[in-house]
Amino acid sequence: MIDVTQQINSVRRQLGRRQLEAGEAVVATITQTYATDPEDLWEAVTDPDRIRRWFLPVSGDLQVGGRYQLEGNAAGTVESCDRPKGFTATWEFGGGISWIEVRISPADDGKALFELDHIAHIDETMWPQFGPGAVGIGWDMGFLGLALHVAGGDKFEEGEFEVTDDGKLFIRLSAERWREADTSFGTDPEQAAASAERSRQFYTGELPPPDFSGEGGSGQQ
Description:
- It contains seven helices and eight strands.
- It is α+β, with helices and mostly antiparallel strands and 221 residues long.
- A hairpin with a 2-residue loop joins β6 and β7 (96-106).
- The longest helix is centred in the C-terminal third of the chain and has 21 residues, at 165-185.
């Protein structure tokens, strides 16, 4: 059973800026506390057998310097690993490259705090159309899958959940929260609302998939 509103409210979303060698990038930070210890959470997000049980099948060499491939989604290179505190990797999708940074730390009552930064250069085409929801809604769905996994629940199937009433509500609420984060980031409220609505329509299948090829790494999660 999925409590959509509770899960949406359990996640903190924030946008920031970071200066990279190639120029300024936007950082989408997603944070949630899980009812398990840091070691178990580390295993859940780094062990291939467990990753497929809440996210996607993953193949490759999950060691520093190794290449990974998420089935039907991103590939990349593992750049650093500090068990059980976190890891960093490139996130390569649709011809673009961005970066992810994962941090795990102890929280109150024996729980674990999970933080993920998705770092991408803003491109001139995709960002005005979809804003942070292009990756944010996808990560929200991943965080939901992880919450179900940690609680001992079953994985929802990609492409099926999105067309259910719960799935549509989840995507709508996620888009709304990313709109709020985008507005706090300084984006014009009307533009943020329009981008969030297009992201919602994309994830519910009301819009065709955007063409991420050749863009600056802000492709679908």
